[in-house]
Write a structure and sequence with these properties.
Blueprint (H helix, E strand, L loop, with lengths): L2 E10 L2 E11 L4 E5 L6 H9 L6 E6 L2 E2 L5 H4 L1 E4 L11 H10 L5 H14 L15 H14 L4 E5 L7 H18 L2 E6 L2 H7 L2 E6 L2 E6 L1 H6 L4 H8 L3
Helix pairs in contact: 3-4, 3-5, 4-5
């Protein structure tokens, strides 16, 4: 499912949060939106998801104008930094939630949940409650729950941002592997340039609401096109 962002602008009061952003996301690719805090990444992602209206510009999904479509119509899965799992539901029922509301049969739900538990490598923990999981495990469950609804696109806003450095590194590798298995077009927001460079096929670097550079990690390393990009990717976390 390819996505085309065309000349998107968003202003909050006098403040220009997203400034004429255009970019293309190829079907099946894993793209990072990378930039410092306040650079407009979350706002852009929310506009792509249909959670926020832009002031100007269009969002095209698979060659169709989706600018005025609802979140549901866009068939997008969303995962935020702070796991929004249902505390009173087990892992299994959290994952099943996306299927249950679509009136799937019990046996199909069980089969699907088992597949997803395997995919997130948490088979055996299906009967636990979120409070009995680590932060990294909770984010994996949140991803599985989004995937259960079979979205065409997955948007992740700093999915590992709240976790400690070691777990974050493990989840990078895991996200890459997961993407190779499911091939859902995925866009993830991060302010961590190591994370973006290691995980993504392509990286979109944002600064002050604008796109500074778009390229593969290698292209950006080898040929940063601005002083800002050079400094930003040179920083270590
Ligand atoms: P990032 O995700 O890159 O940190 P955001 O997209 O969250 O950046 O925010 C970009 C800028 O827009 C920030 O300065 C933020 O304070 C501002 N902003 C975001 N959402 C709102 C809002 N609902 N009202 C006013 N200002 C906002
Ligand atoms: Mg943000």
């Amino acid at each position: 499912m390819s996505i085309l962002v065309q000349d998107i602008t968003k202003q909050f009061g006098d403040f220009l949060a997203v400034d004429r952003v255009s970019l293309t996301v190829e079907s099946g690719s894993l793209v990072a939106l990378l930039g410092p805090s306040g650079s407009g990444k979350s706002t852009l992602l929310r506009i792509m998801a249909g959670l926020e209206k832009s002031d100007h510009g269009q969002i095209w999904i698979e060659n169709e104008d989706a600018t005025y479509r609802s979140v549901q119509e866009r068939q997008i899965g969303f995962v935020f930094q702070h796991y929004a799992l249902f505390k009173h539901l087990t892992v299994r029922n959290n994952i099943a939630f996306g299927l249950n509301i679509r009136k799937a049969s019990k046996s199909l739900v069980k089969q699907k949940v088992d597949e997803l538990l395997d995919l997130i490598q948490l088979r055996g923990l299906g009967d636990r409650y979120p409070s009995q999981l680590s932060g990294g495990q909770r984010q994996r469950v949140a991803l599985a729950r989004s995937l259960a609804a079979q979205p065409k696109t997955l948007l992740l806003d700093e999915p590992f941002g709240a976790l400690d450095a070691k777990v974050r590194k493990e989840l990078r590798t895991w996200l890459r592997q997961l993407h190779e298995q499911v091939h859902v077009t995925t866009i993830f927001v991060t302010h961590d340039q190591e994370e973006a460079m290691e995980v993504a096929d392509r990286v979109v670097i944002m600064n002050n609401g604008r796109v500074e550079q778009i390229g593969t990690p290698a292209e950006i390393y080898d040929n940063p096109t601005s002083e800002f990009v050079m400094r930003f990717i040179g920083e270590t976390n």
